[in-house]
């Protein structure tokens, strides 16, 4: 097994004298770190956008306290599950993360801050002013 990101054509990490060895690279898994980083950035952007949308809807809806936190939790998990479905439930080949829990909890702090900002902003605009 080769290390992630290693060129399969380099011949490193495999036995070059094996009879099943070929120079075509067929059957070898290739992990491209740049593509995984681009995928992570796009998924982060989708999560951030959905947290802003859920913050706006929670603020306009007038939810306060733990109800607002529940709105964020449900929307964050639903967005993560939607992204997992788009990945074909194989998040390791798209992002390099090995577990579904780490995928669902990714960017939770950043998205939580965006949610709080728009939740309080729209709650204040609609109900206080």
Automatic annotation (TrEMBL):
InterPro entries, per database record: Emc6, EMC6-like
Biased composition (Polar residues): 12-25
Any one biological process term the GO annotation gives: protein folding in endoplasmic reticulum
Topology within the bilayer: Multi-pass membrane protein
Alphabetically ordered keywords of this record: Endoplasmic reticulum, Membrane, Transmembrane, Transmembrane helix
Subcellular location field: Endoplasmic reticulum membrane
A GO CC annotation given for this chain: EMC complex
Keyword Transmembrane among UniProt keywords: yes
Membrane-spanning segments: 111-128
Similarity annotation: Belongs to the EMC6 family.
Protein name: ER membrane protein complex subunit 6
């Amino acid at each position: 097994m080769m290390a992630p990101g290693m060129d399969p054509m380099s011949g490193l990490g495999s036995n070059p004298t094996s009879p099943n060895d070929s120079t075509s690279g067929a059957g070898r898994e290739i992990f491209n770190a740049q593509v995984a980083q681009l995928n992570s950035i796009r998924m982060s952007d989708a999560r951030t956008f959905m947290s802003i949308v859920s913050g706006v809807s929670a603020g306009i809806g007038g939810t306060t306290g733990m109800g607002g936190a529940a709105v964020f939790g449900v929307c964050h998990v639903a967005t993560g599950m939607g992204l997992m479905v788009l990945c074909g439930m194989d998040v390791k080949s798209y992002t390099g993360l090995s577990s579904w829990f780490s995928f669902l909890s990714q960017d939770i702090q950043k998205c939580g801050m965006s949610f709080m900002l728009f939740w309080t902003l729209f709650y204040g605009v609609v109900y206080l002013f």
